[in-house]
Please model this.
Amino acid sequence: MEKKQSSSQASGNPSDYVIATMGSHTALQILHGARQEGMRNLVVCKKGTERAYKSYGVADEIILVDDWSEWESIEDELIKRKAIIIPHGSFIAYMGHDRVKNMRAMYFGTKEILEWESNRTMERKWLQAAGLKLPHVFATPEEIAKPVIVKFHGAGGGFGYFIAKSPEQFYEVKNRKYPEQNDFALQEYIVGVPIYAHYFQSALTGELEIMSFDKRYESNADSIGRIRAEDQLAANIHTSYTIVGNIPVVIRESLLPAFFSMGERVVEESKKLEAGKGLFGPFCLECIVTRKLEIFVFEISARIVAGTNPFTMGSPYSWLKYDEPMSTGRRIAREIKFAIEQGKLAKILG
Ligand code: ATP
Model:
């Protein structure tokens, strides 16, 4: 009903619309990118978290709420302003899939794809069908026959993940530290370097772009090497992967064709899923590259990732393509602007 109403009122003027997001995650570059493309923006912040958006002066409007449970109560206001919501990791985590699905305001991206990325079985089916190399998954702790990374479902930012190389070791850590947690995945631990590839699939041109790459700065996985192995054992430190920040990476140039091909296959397969218009806009393949240069993919994020944050002014790759600063946030705004101008807004809304 609402959607019909908004498309019948569709305007070809980008300044009639507002790019809107939740104040967290990648909101700074989304807002900044909207500005760079000459579009208005707004950010919805939980009271007390608005400081950065004020300080950097990137927001045209800041709407404050006491709690994310109030989102629906401001939705009519967002619809009235012709707001186009840009989802990011925190938005999806705080709102939950059902609320995102039922959202009436305009939404950039395919809502149905969120279920495919968040359900481990569905995600694996999708990535396997795309011909990607995935780490082996052990169905039960009893089957652990080589080092595994234990991932608890819904663990924010790698919190609580641990490594085990036998069923005994698994139960020792699990029962001692996480006795209540029974929803976990046991993934083969791949020895190599983590590389997060940031893509943008244009729904307007059909082109897949590689925007940038990052690696994460994780506590305490990235600090353990600062002390001697002997001291690590003495201190009984278990490796954990809480994300603290993101570090830009430029990859070996000869790996680029493989990364392009992987991204294209994932997009192609997404069209065969029962997931609306399939995957478009920003997404990320989370990979480990081994010493034999094999690329394993352990996860997909079907939306903008925080690893794009170091590239407010673009990356070496986006610089090559655009010859002007092009963050992923700005790329989103440009897609929206072109869609409005070309009368193709329906193509990019989920
Ligand atoms: P996200 O926030 O993207 O949903 P997350 O932060 O909860 O994910 P992951 O990104 O899945 O967690 O993993 C956290 C850390 O564990 C990363 O450093 C990643 O490189 C590492 N990791 C994940 N899976 C594997 C694997 N199969 N082998 C080796 N390392 C892995």
Summary: The chain has 14 helices and 14 strands. Residues 135, 149, 155, 157-158, 161, 187-190, 194, 216, 218, 241, 243, 286, 288, 298-299, 301 surround adenosine-5'-triphosphate (CB under 6 Å). The mean pLDDT is 93.
